[in-house]
Amino acid sequence: MAAVAERTREEHPLEQQLMERLADPRTMELLLRLLDKLDQLVFLLEMVEQFLRRGPEIADSINETIITLRKNLGAGQARAPWEDLSSALSGVKEVIESPQVQALFRSAVLDTRSVAVVGHMARAMVEASEQVSRAETKRVGLVGLLRALGDADVQPALQFALAFAQSFSRELAERGNGAQGNGLQGNGAQRHGAQRNGARLL
After folding, report:
1. Among 3, 167, 183, 193, which residue has the fewest nearby CB atoms (within 10 Å)?
2. Structural contact between residues 117 and 125, judged by C-beta atoms closer than 8 angstroms
3. What is the reported pTM?
4. Contact between residue 8 and residue 16 where contact means Cβ atoms under 8 Å apart
């Protein structure tokens, strides 16, 4: 049996290698992932094909636009839009490189998780606003509030609010400790400087 398998491998090396690769679990996993993305891949290839077909048409359109601009605009008029664009880009660059914007980039405000939470809150606010606008205005007393606190739909929001309060308190405490540490360091430096100046006077 082994001799037959060896002879088959020698006679059909490519087929044997192919079968061995297909028997590899990693290869099967990659093939399954590729099949899952097959529709997207076909759509992407169709887009590339359409772009390549229209490539000459797009290039001719761009050339005609440039020629028209050169004919209709003088040298000074042609430079003005580019100068305005350069000035605008310089302004944008200054804003992006400013310490405030850089601090914003380094913070967690633009984190994808933060953005997702804000999105959930915004949708909930819109839905709540629509529900209140459709419902009749009625007074909610203490009993109604206690009853609402036991609602299963309200519990996740309450848990989120409590967790947020705890996390926010920790952030404030850490910030306060950091500020106190910086203040102590500054006071220590001032005392050290005063002692040094007094020694000089003596």
Report:
1. 3
2. no
3. 0.35
4. yes
